[in-house]
Amino acid sequence: MAKCDECGREFAAEAGLAQHLKDKHGLGPGASAKAVAGGPKERRKPKSLRRRNRHPVAIGIAAVAVALVLGLYLTAAPSAAQPPFPCSTEGAYDHIHPYLQIWVGGSNVTIPAGVGLLQEGTCTEPVHMHDASGILHLELSRSQAGQSWTLADFFSIWKYSCSQNPSLCPTVNGAPRPVVFNQTDIFGFRADSTHSVTLLVDGTPSSQWGALDLLQLDYCSAALASAFPCSQTAGGNPAWECVAAGQCGTYPYGTGHKIVIEYAQA
């Protein structure tokens, strides 16, 4: 007896099995021996290979999907974050111009123009930069006036600006640096046994660090308006503008103040 391994049907002769394989299973002459000797295994093998060959394609599709989702998240995450302080929506009420210089290893680090001018210029943070002169602008609305605006506030605004626009990040010797400032660290340069971080106000060391009140440290004045860097500021002469509105007394802190942060050999 000859048996079809495809369907189990038995035949009295090989010739009947061969005809059956041809008619019912589409197998040509000589297929009976394969069917008897292990045809089912050979027929399943291509199917198994097809299943295995689909795995790299599925993995590739999944990897592309993950990359797209991650890319969208990384793109959207910075823009979704809120600025450190509400955008000014009123006209400037107090307008003060502190002068900040930062030195690392004897080189002056530029504070980029545009720090604090966010969302394509539609959002103005209370402390910002109109140019790269080193003059900070405290342009405060009526609701912001009278508050303490500190050096730490400015660095928070700078850090956020840098996260939104890499061109606003600080660079030292052409390399981008993190926006960090405290009594032991400026831009990732840390105080150690041979280096120190120093804060100077009008040439005198200060221990206020981030708590330094910028509102008391106006630099520009009518007398300085034609000298660097006052001539490069936007907004004209500095003023405690509530004076003109009759809402406060004479600005009590004077002008010509200068703030310096220095990282140097101890």
The beta-strand count equals 17
Secondary-structure element order, as H and E?
A: EEHHHEEEEEEEHEEEEEEEE
Number of helices: 4
Rounded Rg? 37 Å
What is the SS-derived class? alpha+beta
Residues in β-strands, percent:
15-25%
Total tally of structural domains: 2
Strands of the largest sheet, in order across it?
5-4-17-15-16
Can you give the mean pLDDT?
A: 80
- 3D shape: elongated
Largest sheet features: 5 strands, mixed
Q: Regions with pLDDT < 50 over 5+ consecutive residues? A: 32-45, 72-79
Distance between the termini: 102 Å
Helical content stands at 25-40%
Summarize this, please?
With 266 residues, the protein is an alpha+beta fold. 28% of the residues lie in helices and 19% in strands.
Can you walk through the features of this model?
With 266 residues, this protein is of the alpha+beta class. The protein folds into two domains: 79 residues; 172 residues, no CATH class. The protein is 28% helix and 19% strand. The protein has a five-stranded mixed sheet with strand order 5-4-17-15-16, with no helix packed on it. A three-stranded antiparallel sheet has the order 3-9-8. It has a three-stranded antiparallel sheet with strand order 12-13-14, with no helix packed on it. β1 and β2 form a beta hairpin. The longest helix has 42 residues.
Which features does this protein show?
single chain; 266 residues; alpha+beta; 2 domains; five-stranded mixed β-sheet; three-stranded antiparallel β-sheet; 4 helices; 17 strands; 19% strand
